[in-house]
Design a protein that fits this description.
about 500 residues, alpha/beta, 7 strands, about 55% helix
Length: about 500
């Protein structure tokens, strides 16, 4: 019999294996609240590498563009400053271009070294104003702009803007105060005649540049802090969900262990009455067993009793923990909710430890809940295969027949499944199917030293909604400890 695709959708003929491209599941567990990835989606490491390359190239081009813009601005300031200084201050062409070049150099240097650029710009202004002071007496009224020429104001404002973006606000304000003080000294203390004062206007323009740069820097810092806080919040939420799931597992196991310890105590108390003329040694041993069981039960209740609920004083529930015997009632409830569910039971049930029974029930329950939330109207097959080494579970659903509504869940259902399986030495896999459905499989050993069964072959003669049953073969050689698989998200 030729194996076929175990996930064929309703009414579709499964394609031949040679014609079916191999799916590429996501590496690593994901949340159950997100939509299943497409089968042709690229592996996550390749996607991350591609995104990193795109980000690197984008940053490189933005860096180059930033320097190109600064160079064009510096070129304009150099030419305009050289022309104005030569005309207004009586400098020759070489001196005017040199003074303008100093301001242009400060503009370009501000992209990498804003503090030295600010120092160069301020020093160039002081030197230019001092050199031009003797020529101010012969200048026609109303006189040239002094001590700050217009290109110098623009260049220094640009440097202040970059400085405020790069440095803390206190350093930007300190640089602004030094520039204002230098302007006051040159214009108010040294002074000159026959000029139009530009000190007050220049300081006002510099203040606006510092204010805008500081506001943009504060906005960027706030956005970065918000992203970091959201990341921390998401991590804390995932951590809290994990702790809540572990606490729930601990509560359930506590009930199971407490029940068995109580049974041991009662059996040790009744055993002497079942033997005719029991010896004193037998009575003492059974009494010791009963006393140890009672002490262990007391310690267990003292340590783990607080895990029953958030309120330790709240009475514990009286209902027993569910087992595989209650799967039929669970499936009937799921059918009543509107899902078409079929079951496939293989093998003879054998006694399992209480933890295995409880975890198997919870895994099937969570998988069916995910189908109800994320695949409404789909056909579901629930498989339970019993082996001497453990139990194999499978929940496979077809493509939903209507759009999937947003899920109000926490998105950590698969996390709880894996926690339960890993605790018992088993494993859980969750992968999307080629036809838009989803498959969750699990193997829970009776102990932690049995082998994990290989992936089961499929049967093309399957019916019931086009979802072939998953018949796992007998588990492999003993002695291999199963490890939890990395799977995709639940549906």
């Amino acid at each position: 019999m030729t194996p076929t695709d175990p996930t064929a959708a309703d009414g579709e003929t499964p394609p031949h294996p040679a014609e079916v491209p191999a799916p590429t599941p996501e590496p690593g567990p994901e949340t159950a609240g997100e939509p299943a990835p497409a089968p042709n989606r690229a592996p996550e490491p390749a996607r991350e590498t591609l995104l990193n390359r795109l980000r690197t190239r984008t940053r490189r081009w933005l860096h180059i563009l930033k320097y190109l813009i600064a160079t064009w601005i510096a070129l304009g300031i150099t030419l305009a400053g050289g022309d104005e200084l030569s005309t207004s201050y009586g400098f020759n062409t070489e001196d005017g271009l040199l003074a303008g070049f100093a301001q242009g150099l400060a503009v370009v240097l501000s992209q990498s070294r804003p503090v030295p650029a600010w120092g160069i710009s301020l020093a160039a202004m002081v030197a230019t104003a001092t050199a031009a002071r003797p020529a101010l007496a012969d200048a026609p009224q109303p006189g040239p702009d002094w001590p700050w020429a217009t290109p110098q104001v623009l260049a220094h404002a640009f440097v202040f803007f970059v400085l405020a973006l790069r440095l803390p606000i206190r350093r930007a304000v300190a640089a602004l105060a030094v520039s204002g003080l230098a302007t006051f000294v040159v214009e108010g203390v040294i002074g000159g005649v026959g000029y139009s004062a530009t000190g007050l206007v220049a300081v006002a323009v510099f203040s606006v540049a510092v204010l805008v740069g500081t506001a943009l820097r504060a906005r960027s810092e706030a956005r970065t802090q918000l992203v970091e806080q959201e990341t921390i919040t998401a991590e804390e939420r995932a951590r809290r969900t994990l702790l809540e799931e572990r606490s729930r597992i601990a509560r359930e196991l506590h009930d199971v262990v407490a029940h068995h310890m109580s049974v041991i105590s009662i059996q040790a108390q009744v055993a002497p009455h079942l033997v005719e003329n029991p010896s004193e040694e037998l009575k003492e041993n059974l009494a010791g067993i009963r006393q140890n069981a009672l002490e262990a039960l007391t310690e267990l209740r003292r340590v783990l009793g607080v895990l029953r609920s958030e309120n330790p004083d709240e009475p514990a529930p009286d209902s027993p923990q569910p087992t595989l015997d209650r799967l039929d009632a669970l499936i009937e409830n799921t059918r009543a909710a509107g899902l078409d569910v079929v079951t496939d039971i293989a093998g003879e049930p054998c006694p399992y430890p209480p933890g295995v029974e409880l975890s198997a029930y919870r895994i099937v329950q969570e998988a069916l809940s995910n189908v109800l939330r994320h695949a409404p109207g789909s056909k579901v097959r629930v498989e339970v295969s019993h082996f001497s080494e453990g139990v194999h579970l499978g929940v496979i659903n077809s493509r939903p027949d209507r759009p999937v509504p947003p899920s109000p869940g926490t998105g950590h259902g698969l996390l709880g499944m894996r926690e339960r399986a890993t605790m018992l030495g088993g494993h859980v896999t969750a992968t999307p199917t080629l036809h838009g459905g989803f498959m969750v499989t699990a193997f829970l050993p009776k102990d932690a030293c049995v082998a994990r069964p290989p992936l089961p072959p499929t049967d093309p003669a399957a019916a019931d909604g086009g979802i072939p049953p998953q018949k796992p073969p007998a588990p492999a050689t003993e002695g291999h400890v199963p490890t939890p698989d990395e799977g995709a998200q639940t549906p």
